Predict the 3D structure of the following.
Amino acid sequence: MRERGLRVLVVGGGGREHALVTALAASPRVADVWCAPGNPGIAEVATPVPVAADDLPGLVEHARALAVDVVVVGPEAPLVAGLVDALSEAGIPAFGPTAAGARLEASKAWSKALMREAGLPTADFEVVSTLEEADRAIDRLTGPRGVVVKADGLAAGKGVVVAGSVDEARETAREWLAGGLGEAGRTLVIERRLSGQEASLIAVVDGTGFRAFPLARDHKALCDGDEGPNTGGMGVVSPVTSPDGDPQVLAERVFPALLAALRARGIVYRGVVFAGLMFTDAGPSLLEFNCRFGDPEAQVLLAGLDMDLVDLLEQALETRLDGSPVPVRPGTRVCVVAAAPGYPGTPARGQAVAGLETLAPLDGVHVFHAGTRLSAEGVLETAGGRVLNVVGSGDSVEAARARAYEALAGVTFAGVAPVYRRDIGLAGAGRR
């Protein structure tokens, strides 16, 4: 990659991509940033490209026409579909795993088997494809607090049910195996349920080496106190302490073993690995791997990044990651997600978003657009479930929380307050 004047295309249109674009545009090495398809917030710092994130031929065509130096892929779907493979065939450098590597997220059964091969701790599980197999696995793995049923494939955040009873687990398995989630649910992972404090450990990897970010804690449930349905994430805080010692030691245990297991399968994985962890009484256990930055984890991690993001991506593309922690600025970052009414079911769309102009002068606040659009009249309005990500930064969790919630207090959707949790970052929140 050239020292200066880089031309970068980011793929995606949510809060994670807004954070990526913001960090890339701030680099003195970057001349131009495009984003496909982008959103109104992204358009303030990058040039939107009217190509959908799943339009692989269109993305390759535009990357070639724009003469970009590198493509940074945000969401999992184009990675799973093989966008990096297609870009590589066209001679265009791309940051992200190939389709073979993205199977780490595309198939929970494949990913769990890889954990076993790598000797990484994870909950006991069985992979099933018939109702009879599911019934036997549910009987064996159900504990006092239930069992977890997971669809093998990508299911837009709807492929995991923490069943409190055998009956609920069997009903879920019956529905999904019968096609209730399409092809994503034709194979299931039945998993013993764990309890403890969750955390996200995210690293940039180059096939052999890695550099890990500080631990972050996502808050998946919709409501305060970790009640209500699971969502794509209602907020996150970072850094957080590990109840199991130094997070860097944990990273050194997880990522080299994972990369070695991938290489044993002929896969050189370059990009991001997201390790979802549960800190149980018996020690840390892996819940899942994802093949991209978390959302909204990326928003707090990149807001605190204390190095040029281009330098970090370059180290990964050139196989120069040395295992040292990714540097972040002192203090804490707290992200609160503002969701549309009806989320995560059928969120209201087309509601006018107001109050963002009052956030511009606030110190220590970043606002990332996740699900917004402009109406025909040029009015900013809701266009998805998670609409805005408000990040507050401060010397402490309390200071970061105060800034995020102060900023969010002035935002309305169609004249009413958005849906958001009031306990992001509080002690105990995020325990599942």
About this structure: The two ends are 43 Å apart (CA to CA). The first helix runs from residue 15 to 25. The domain at 130-186 is CATH 3.30.1490.20 (Dna Ligase; domain 1).
